[in-house]
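In the design runs reported in the main text, the only information available to the sequence generator was the tokenized backbone. The following block is the verbatim input for one such run; it is reproduced so that readers can re-run the procedure and compare outputs position by position.
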């Protein structure tokens, strides 16, 4: 099983923790490092176009999207969250390929840390679990 990970560079500290958790969990699930391609993009809004290009290659069984969007003082947050989630969904449906949305969308840094190994688990691990599960589900249909 080949896995592509598209990770944003914006909010690097948080995305690095997401990426490391995802990669660690994929290893635990017996996905070798050589079967995982990581692509870095500037921000969350750029994730869908990179996911689309990866899907178009037909090399991957699943794509995992990783990023971090923190609410600010303007409505920009809502637009970014909508663009990345709708864009990833579109890629999944257009290419019949699971695109796992592992993009944290939180009100503040404390909420993000709670989802990166804190009281709400680790969303990177959960993204890896969802990726492997979806590949298996689609194979069984």
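Verbatim output:
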């Amino acid at each position: 099983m080949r896995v592509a990970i598209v990770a944003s560079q914006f909010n690097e500290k948080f995305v690095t923790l997401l990426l490391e958790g995802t990669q660690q969990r994929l290893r635990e699930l017996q996905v070798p490092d050589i079967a995982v391609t990581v692509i870095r993009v500037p921000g969350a809004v750029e994730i869908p176009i990179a996911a689309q290009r990866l899907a178009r290659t037909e090399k991957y069984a699943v794509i995992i999207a990783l990023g971090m969007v923190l609410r600010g003082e303007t409505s920009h947050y809502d637009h970014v969250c909508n663009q990345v989630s709708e864009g990833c969904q579109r890629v999944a449906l257009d290419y019949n390929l699971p695109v796992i949305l592992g993009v944290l969308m939180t009100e503040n840094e404390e909420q993000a840390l709670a989802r990166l190994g804190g009281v709400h688990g680790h969303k990177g691990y959960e993204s890896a679990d969802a990726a492997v599960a979806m590949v298996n589900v689609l194979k069984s249909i």
